[in-house]
Specification:
By secondary structure, the protein is an alpha+beta fold. It folds into 4 domains: 19-79, Alpha-Beta Plaits (2-Layer Sandwich), CATH 3.30.70; 102-380, Peptidase S8/S53 domain (Rossmann fold, 3-Layer(aba) Sandwich), CATH 3.40.50; 388-545, Endoglucanase-like (Immunoglobulin-like); 550-584. It has a 7-stranded parallel beta sheet, sandwiched between helices. Strands 19, 20, 23, 27, 28 and 29 form a 6-stranded antiparallel beta sheet that branches. Strands 24-25-22-30-31 form a 5-stranded antiparallel beta sheet, with no helix packed on it. Strand 24 and strand 25 (461-468) form a beta hairpin.
Length: 585
């Protein structure tokens, strides 16, 4: 017990000493006025300039008294830190660390997260060719089989050299007695981007050490460097709860150069740089496509969600690992931005505007939205693949020959997300009666308030056209059941077996005779040929029936019945009394 207490005491003292040492590091970040020179300021205060970022008039210098009184210095910032470590402790007490796992290029590219995002379909439009993605992270493992064909040399702002390698060095720079906890992080992020945008070029920029620990000044340096090297998209899988204004300046610099910046949110706190303007912020969904335990933000929400739980990708030492965190979700969004820009039709503003086209709701309140790569890239390329199927059954009816037609429909969407108000369906039939018809929606997954029904004539045959007032039909999803009913105002009998679109099956089944239209153009099914002889009844278009519509129909039916009763009675009164008496017996 005493030994344990001694170790705990040493651990606490070490952490306090290391954090105090870091707090007393004699460096600050200064911003200077446009007419000043850092060399003269350094001479005047007898200090050393440790690093510079002239694009932002920003310099890392030795701390010295009197700097705050120098009119040439417009701002002084602490040399603050941020990290990329996805080893957050969640409410369950679990520590989310990299878990080395068996893997291969094929296993990474076939994992469920990519299928969920419909990446393979997106590759039919774009694979990222001609786009450069800068990864500001722990560097990359250049010889990893998942990365070798995707990389160019970058820069290391930690060691200040041109070797941006991701490797474990046995350090514990953050003083938590966990060594190299960030090693492999940059390679993992790079592997995800390579899977999403396989023809894009990856530019590694090392701003975090092997603990995933770094400085905000290095982040700003990395952003400016990436812009200078022609990056189109920047991935920043790192976060801090309190950012520095000069980080916003660096992000604005990138935005003005037409570069997209994608950043990960923090632990249930959006943090920085994700919280800055001109940044696409990202959080993670779990294997069930819901928010992870890391992603319940008390104020606002992120731009996009993407899979971030147990993602398989590259790891240092030529290995593979499964890792969980917002850091893993972010490169899915970054890779998508690269695909969008590679279409040639989409710049940084376009990415911001259309990235979430077709995005899926991830909770019952539909607040957060999970990216769909195929829809986003399709919007960027202005390509919309319409691939629908209609399912139908009439067996919900009591009898195929009675006074009510019952019809169940469903639309299956195989391609891009569509607005339901752009779609219509037609059920084709031959009408045996001459009276007008009334349409009812009994139940619909999209809500009966959004379902409309009108009657029309085409090709010598009548049809019920089903439309939608509002709603969205997601790609690789269906509309759910739409349960409909029609009847004549005089309740005349139908013979549904004569209907061209009649489909007598027990379950909803793909049926080409219920045709589908996108903005009025046929996109599914086979329209009927004109019959040689058919009775066409002019129909009044009737939409979703109201109580008033029902009362009118009822009144008309009662009026007809009363008229018949009156005429029969009148005829009887006109007959001889004896004959009437005989008929009454």
């Amino acid at each position: 017990m005493k030994t344990r207490l001694i170790w705990i005491g040493l651990f606490v003292l070490t952490m306090v000493w290391q954090r105090t040492a870091r707090a007393e590091e004699l460096t600050v970040i200064v911003a200077i006025s446009a007419d000043a020179t850092i060399d003269q300021i350094a001479i005047d205060h007898d200090i050393s300039v440790l690093a510079e970022l002239p694009e932002l008039s920003l310099f890392r210098v030795e701390a010295a008294s009197g700097l705050e009184n120098d009119a040439r210095i417009t701002a002084i910032y602490p040399d603050s830190t941020l990290d990329a470590r996805p080893s957050y402790i969640v409410a369950t007490g679990d520590i989310l660390e990299a878990a080395p796992a068996a893997g291969s290029v094929q296993q990474v590219e076939s994992q469920p997260a990519l299928a969920l995002l419909r990446v393979a379909q997106a590759h039919t439009i774009s694979r990222g060719a001609g786009v450069t993605v800068a990864i500001l992270d722990t560097g990359v493992e250049f010889e990893h089989p998942l990365l070798t064909d995707h990389l160019v040399s970058g820069y290391d702002f930690v060691s200040v050299d041109s070797d941006a390698a991701d490797e474990a060095d046995g350090s514990d720079t953050d003083g938590d007695w966990m060594f190299d906890e960030g090693a492999g992080h940059g390679s993992h992020v790079a592997g995800i981007i390579a899977s999403v945008a396989p023809d894009a070029t990856i530019l590694p920029v090392r701003i975090f050490d092997s603990n995933g620990h770094g400085f905000n000044f290095n982040v700003a340096q990395g952003i400016i460097y990436a812009v200078s090297q022609g990056a189109d998209v920047i991935n920043l899988s790192g976060n801090t709860s309190s950012g520095e204004p000069f980080l916003q300046d660096a992000i604005n610099y990138a935005a003005q150069a037409g570069v997209v910046v994608v950043a990960s949110a923090g632990l249930n706190n959006i943090g920085y740089p994700a919280g800055y303007a001109n940044t696409i912020s990202v959080a993670a969904t779990d294997i069930n496509d819901w928010r992870t335990a890391l992603s319940h933000f008390s104020t606002g929400d992120v731009t996009s969600y993407a899979p971030g739980e147990q993602i398989l990708s590259a790891y240092h030492g030529g290995r593979y690992a499964r890792w969980t965190g917002h850091s893993m979700a972010t490169p899915f969004v970054t890779g998508t931005a690269a695909l969008m820009m590679a279409t040639g039709n989409c710049d940084a503003d376009c990415v911001q505007a259309t990235l979430m086209d077709g995005a899926r709701p991830i909770d019952v309140n539909e607040l957060g939205r999970r990216l769909d790569v195929y829809d986003a890239v399709g919007s960027a390329a202005d390509q919309q693949d319409i691939t629908l199927q209609t399912r139908a059954t009439n067996t919900s009816d009591d009898l195929p020959q009675d006074n009510v037609r019952k019809l169940w429909l469903q639309i299956d969407n195989q391609a891009h997300t569509l607005s339901l108000d752009e779609l219509t369906l037609r059920y084709w039939y031959q009408n045996e009666a001459v009276s007008a018809e009334i349409f009812h929606c009994d139940w619909a997954a999209v809500g009966c308030a959004n379902v409309t029904g009108t009657f029309g004539v085409d090709r010598g045959m009548q049809y019920l056209e089903v439309g939608f007032a509002a709603g969205v039909l997601f790609g690789s999803a269906d509309s759910g059941q739409i349960q409909l009913r029609t009847h004549h105002v005089d309740w005349a009998t139908y013979d549904e077996t004569n209907d061209y679109s009649y489909h007598a099956v027990s379950d909803l089944e793909m049926w080409e005779r219920v045709t589908a239209y996108y903005n009025g153009e046929l996109v599914w099914g086979t329209e009927p040929d004109t019959p040689t002889a058919v009775t066409v009844v002019a129909q009044a278009s009737v939409g979703q029936p109201s109580t008033g519509t029902f009362l009118i129909a009822l009144s008309l039916t009662l009026l007809i019945a009363a008229t018949v009763h009156y005429l029969v009675g009148l005829k009887l009164r006109q007959q001889p009394a004896g004959l009437r008496a005989t008929r009454q017996q």
